[in-house]
Amino acid sequence: MRILLQRVKSAEVRIRAESPESPTRVSGRIHAGYLLLVGFTHGDTDTELEWMTDKVICLRLFPDEEQRMNRDIQEHGGALLVVSQFTLYADVRKGRRPSFIDAAKPEPAEVLYNRFVMGLRQRGLQVETGEFGAMMDVELVNDGPVTILIERDAGPE
């Protein structure tokens, strides 16, 4: 499982219209918090979901009174915008076209995505989302900038 975490002042995800006549619609919008681009690979389980949930919630990436990154998202009162992103598992070592062979298939990835979102919500956080599998436009104002790649390999610790 991989997450590209960006600390944001604001972020929004819009679902692209399927036809020119259809309007684009906002799926999720937050003010201060984290934008989480989330990708899954084969073999990811509840173990990875729980580890990632704890990691995201407990990382101290918000400033305290001395402007040191010393507060977690709950202490800061921030929200989360979670967007599925299978391209986090792109392999570009060979050729000019990325391979996505390491990305989980859509069906199991969607189940994992929904469980991850539910786990974050169960911890009392405000969680907004994109729409799994949709073409989306993501707009953000990165705060800092702070961008961190978090990765947890499937399997035993």
From TrEMBL:
<dbReference type="InterPro" id="IPR023509">
    <property type="entry name" value="DTD-like_sf"/>
</dbReference>
<keyword id="KW-0820">tRNA-binding</keyword>
<protein>
    <recommendedName>
        <fullName>D-aminoacyl-tRNA deacylase</fullName>
        <ecNumber>3.1.1.96</ecNumber>
        <ecNumber>3.1.1.-</ecNumber>
    </recommendedName>
</protein>
<comment type="similarity">
    <text>Belongs to the DTD family.</text>
</comment>
<dbReference type="GO" id="GO:0051500">
    <property type="term" value="F:D-tyrosyl-tRNA(Tyr) deacylase activity"/>
</dbReference>
<dbReference type="GO" id="GO:0000049">
    <property type="term" value="F:tRNA binding"/>
</dbReference>
<keyword id="KW-0378">Hydrolase</keyword>
<comment type="function">
    <text>An aminoacyl-tRNA editing enzyme that deacylates mischarged D-aminoacyl-tRNAs. Also deacylates mischarged glycyl-tRNA(Ala), protecting cells against glycine mischarging by AlaRS. Acts via tRNA-based rather than protein-based catalysis; rejects L-amino acids rather than detecting D-amino acids in the active site. By recycling D-aminoacyl-tRNA to D-amino acids and free tRNA molecules, this enzyme counteracts the toxicity associated with the formation of D-aminoacyl-tRNA entities in vivo and helps enforce protein L-homochirality.</text>
</comment>
<comment type="subunit">
    <text>Homodimer.</text>
</comment>
<dbReference type="GO" id="GO:0106026">
    <property type="term" value="F:Gly-tRNA(Ala) deacylase activity"/>
</dbReference>
<dbReference type="GO" id="GO:0019478">
    <property type="term" value="P:D-amino acid catabolic process"/>
</dbReference>
<dbReference type="Pfam" id="PF02580">
    <property type="entry name" value="Tyr_Deacylase"/>
</dbReference>
<dbReference type="InterPro" id="IPR003732">
    <property type="entry name" value="Daa-tRNA_deacyls_DTD"/>
</dbReference>
<keyword id="KW-0963">Cytoplasm</keyword>
<dbReference type="GO" id="GO:0043908">
    <property type="term" value="F:Ser(Gly)-tRNA(Ala) hydrolase activity"/>
</dbReference>
<dbReference type="GO" id="GO:0005737">
    <property type="term" value="C:cytoplasm"/>
</dbReference>
<keyword id="KW-0694">RNA-binding</keyword>
<feature type="short sequence motif" description="Gly-cisPro motif, important for rejection of L-amino acids">
    <location>
        <begin position="144"/>
        <end position="145"/>
    </location>
</feature>
